[in-house]
Design goal:
Blueprint: E1 2-4, H1 14-31, E2 62-64, H2 69-79
Antiparallel strand pairs: 1-2
Length: about 80
């Protein structure tokens, strides 16, 4: 089982942005008591301008089970800003 999600955060570069985004997601999962995360990684990161922030997705997630990862990824990519 896994999930796709999009989070934005302020950071000096994409590497530190990825680390911040992972912390944000971990806190969200803990707060909602969704269970432990065995691993978490950032597959893609985008730099967005301050004018894009109101339009950028910043909550929610798409869960997938075995065999449906590509479907979940397609849904998330549709909701995410273009690089």
């Amino acid at each position: 089982m896994g999930f796709y999600t999009t989070r934005w955060c302020w950071a000096r570069d994409q590497e530190s942005g990825a680390a911040k985004a992972i912390k944000i997601v971990r806190k969200d999962v803990e707060r909602q008591r969704l269970g432990p995360l065995s691993s978490l990684k950032v597959e893609q990161g985008w730099r967005i301008s301050v004018f894009e922030i109101p339009k950028a997705p910043n909550r929610g997630c798409t869960f997938y089970g075995a065999g449906s990862e590509s479907e979940a990824k397609a849904i998330e990519e549709k909701a995410s800003p273009s690089p």
